[in-house]
Description:
Elements: E1 2-9, E2 13-20, E3 25-31, H1 33-63, E4 76-80, H2 82-91, E5 96-99, H3 103-108, E6 115-116, H4 124-129, E7 137-140, H5 145-157, E8 161-165, H6 168-174
Parallel strand pairs: 4-8, 5-6, 5-7, 7-8
Antiparallel strand pairs: 1-2, 2-3
Amino acid sequence: MRCFHASTSATFIDRSFTLNAQHRTCVFYFTYNNHLTSMKKRSFTYWILTAFAFASSIQIGIASPAENETKPLKAGYHEIKAKKAGLLLKNHKDLIVLDIRTEKEYVAGHIAKAKHVDFYESDFKSRLEKLDRKTPYLVHCASGGRSGRSLEIFRDLGFTRIYHMNDGFKGWMKEKLPSKKGKPEKNKK
């Protein structure tokens, strides 16, 4: 291996040329003598600013609100999926679940603390009239059909905060969210 050293300008460039005969590769090394100190300073400043920006972004990320943070439930009628419904129930203890499936469907499996109001019963509307209109409700049936049709009744009665789980209890089970079996509370003795 031979190394040739050529200097075109002692104050500006120091160029080294290395030839490796075995691999037939050439490598050039450039060093700017006069600019080396200022480059080191700029490089150091760059890394300090980069580290500061990175640390700031981490702090901002921690300080920003989390995705699952509890926010007040909005007024209106909202179409949601079971996964979102699970998060809402976890974060909002005031959200009441209305299961409008048949009693047989309810007994086979339901969301914990769900109130049962059968859509097919003749007293469906009168039972809804007894509920507080300003309380937020999560309404669902098996797959979203009956609960979707019930939204018109909720509107007519003046309910202000309805969350319709449009994939129904089937969506709840598909997401592997917790459920329980048993009769509705009104029938328990």
